[in-house]
Amino acid sequence: MKFTQSGGTKSSLGSASVSTNNDGRHRRDAVLRVLTDLFVLDGDRQAPDERARQEELMIALASEAGMVMRQEVAERLAPLANPPARLISMLARDIIAVAAPILRHCEGLEDLKIADIVLTTSVKHARAAAERALPGIATAEAIIAIEDREAILTLIANQNVIFSKAALERLCRLARNDAVIANKLMARGAMPPMAAATLFWSADSTRREAIIARLEKEPSWPLDLSQMQPPMRVADARSRHAAHRGLLAVLKAGRRDDFRAIFGRAMGLKPQLEERIFADKGGETFAIACRAAGFAEQEFATLLLLYNREIGSSVQRVFALRGFFAAVSEDLAWRMITAWNASLPRKSAATATAGASPEQIRTALHNAEIVVAETAAQARPALPLRGAMYEPVGVRAERVSAVPPARPVHPASEHAATLPRGSGRTAGGGRR
Mean pLDDT across the stretch 232-254? Predict the structure, then answer.
């Protein structure tokens, strides 16, 4: 009986303790709710010391409050322009259910503090911060630094975001291996033209067409690109057409290596760029190079069929590349070529003429034309001659009739024809 009474007493004490704890929590939550209301309604008019004491009390109460109460406080304080800074920072580091309203909507939370929260908490915190109406530069850099794809795509879709140079460079590196990020960047217009030109190499055919369409409308190319003047770029129409004929003759003769070397020299391509253009399996980079060189569409198709037999064997691929070729303007093609050259480390012939005098440029062009003409002459197939060739000293080479002239008749032969048969005498007067 005593045991039963004793057990009943302990049970009653435990229930009373739980009830007391619940009552205490309810009281603390009620006090926290009242203090939150005071901040919402009258926080801006409080004296600094009074505001600081109230914030200290709210931090202590929030530390012991349940998740539902903390979430309520966060939602009430998030819209304030001047919320209690330390309490807001504490709630922003809480579990995502509590932190999300602060990270998404609180304008009173400093940019650097949000960036630190993104870097030191969970991916879910980064995704919530990416949904802010106006993410700061530091916040954007932090979200990109953790390389969470969902957060990055949300950030790119936000037109209010301002990307720093470092953030853009990192985004462009990520875009090389992620077509969605690349397309979002180009659609947003956030990708610098030089980065888009570099991204072209790792893109598939669809993305390459999107890059060209984007760059055709890009007005902010670096000004120094116009200073790169390789021979084919400064050639007049007559010289360019002569170079085209020479290059076509070289390729038709089957001298693919010579064609590549002459073409690269005339276009001012660095060796690395020349190799990449002719090794590119898509064919779009070769189309851009030919467009910059000024080839006509039919000439480009001929070059494509002769040089890249793998592509030339597919009618659909040739047709698609001809459409791509026609869609690229010559000005954009040259910008792409010079951007690719500029992205490579070594100095090349393309930059050697930068700042050169007109006479130096003309000399370089003349030398390139000589190389093209000489190689074209060597590659010209031998034709059957209708006549023999002779080259007397000081006389221009001419063709003569291939029909040999009649052999001259010796006078003695004429006399022999008049002698009677059987006379036994020779034309010289002797006897046989």
Answer: 88
